[in-house]
Design brief:
Helix content is 72%, strand content 0%. The protein is mostly helical. The two termini are 22 Å apart.
């Protein structure tokens, strides 16, 4: 039963991320004159900029958040790693909120929950090194560290000097925050799906 719960968690995480990435690609294509390097991902859900297509992106973001929360729940049933599960669930809640509250609706709420999502997700990725076998444990540390570093640079670019964006633009820098998290989530989902039922994830964090 525990093995089955982890496989369900993996399927939820993998499928939730796949649908979101594909939706983002479609929305970036449809969005007129969208600049990946300069514009935030959240601009795709901005009703004032993206028009009615913002609803598609928002729905996909909400769905991803729900899948992450559900995935965290099922993973917890298969292994009692409550710290990791709580952080991952918080990241899911953040996804839901940024989908519901677009950046042009209540900017402060959207920005706050986006930051909470980034931090909790990245820390969860770092903590996961205790829960998975090598070499994926090393991949987890690397991707989590890259995401947190890029988040730190992004905050410096916003509050100190744009030069901290490393000529990537705020859009490019934001993608270096989230892409490592997305890649890890796809990998972790696949890891759980393909996990042998003789293997047990028991790490407690």
């Amino acid at each position: 039963m525990k093995c089955g719960n982890r496989k369900i968690a993996g399927l939820l995480l993998f499928s939730g991320l796949v649908q979101f990435i594909l939706t983002q690609i479609v929305c970036e294509t449809i969005y007129p004159d969208y600049l990946v390097g300069q514009q935030a991902i959240s601009d795709l859900g901005n009703w004032g900029l993206a028009g009615n297509f913002a609803a598609v992106f928002a729905a996909s973001s909400i769905l991803l958040g729900v899948f992450i929360i559900a995935g965290a729940y099922f993973n917890m049933q298969g292994s009692k790693n409550r710290g990791f599960t709580a952080l991952f669930a918080i990241a899911g809640v953040g996804n839901v909120v940024v989908g519901v509250v677009a950046e042009n609706v209540i900017p402060s709420v959207h920005s706050l929950f986006a930051l909470i999502m980034f931090v909790s997700w990245a820390v969860a990725v770092l903590l996961s090194y205790k829960l998975v076998k090598s070499p994926f444990s090393y991949v987890s540390v690397t991707l989590g560290s890259v995401s947190l570093l890029m988040l730190f640079l992004s905050l410096l670019a916003q509050r100190v000097s744009p030069s901290f964006a490393l000529s990537l633009g705020m859009g490019g820098l934001e993608r270096l925050i989230v892409y490592p998290l997305w890649l890890w989530t796809l990998g972790f989902g696949a890891y759980l799906i393909g996990e042998s039922c003789d293997t047990t994830i028991t790490g407690k964090t």
